[in-house]
Amino acid sequence: MTDISKNTLEKIKKKNVRPIPKHYFLLKRSMLWSLFGLSILLGSIASGIAIFLLTHFEWDLYHHLGHSLIGFVLLVFPYFWLIFLLGFSIFAYVFFRRTDRGYRHKTVWIVLQSIIFSIIGGTILTTTGLPERLETSFQENIPFYRGLEDHKRKVWMSPGQGLLAGKIFSVSSQESIQLEDLKGMIWNVHIGNAKWRGRLGPSENLKIKIIGHMKGDGQFIANEIRPWKGKKQQRRMQGNRSTGKYR
Fold first, then answer.
1. Residues 6+ apart with CB under 8 A from 34
2. Distances (CA, A) of 6 to 3, 16, 19, 158
3. Which residues of the chain have pLDDT under 70?
4. Which domains are assigned to the chain?
5. CA-CA distance, 75 to 196, in Å (whole number)?
6. Which residues does 194 contact at the CB level (< 8 Å), separation at least 6?
7. pLDDT digits over 153-164, tens only?
């Protein structure tokens, strides 16, 4: 036995060094891969909500607002969920890099793959309706998140440019309704020639979006009326109309 070997053995005995159990490495490996998978899953949820918001936004509105298409995209783009997607992709990179073979891959390639996997996962999730349910829940229960969605309100609160939104305050007749807009102002809206989308009809406490034009102070002519929310959210809201629930 060489002197180096003897010295090493003496140090091991002196410091009472013991080999690390195999199950420790197995547990560590499992945790790293589980955390990596969780990061991809959360990134997929963020991606799914972003895809849902982008695909269900009324892209034809930029004609009314006088914006270019690029300017309109910048106005309504779901930056909040983009930040979440990037954040979870970075987490996925950190956990993957600590796996047995993670060091062999370049940083950019790992992050890019994480983003791609999350987008694919988000696309699949949109077919289940989960992103829409989560987005609805966030809107209804998290004031901070509702504040982030104020751009949607600003888009529809442009009566001078033919856009108006709010809650039907009362139904005067089949030709006219009173609308309380998102700022609390009451409008007399003429709906005689309006086209209703989403199988809607004039009903109190129904929240709607209107495309048309102003006739004067507090007067609006409706050409088209749309539900404020998506199909599933709208059905839930219609179920709550009789009880006076409104968000």
1. none
2. 5, 15, 18, 84
3. 1-25, 62-69, 71-72, 75, 148-152, 230-247
4. 22-148 (no CATH), 157-243 (2.40.50.140)
5. 26
6. 210, 212, 222, 223, 224, 225
7. 777 888 888 889
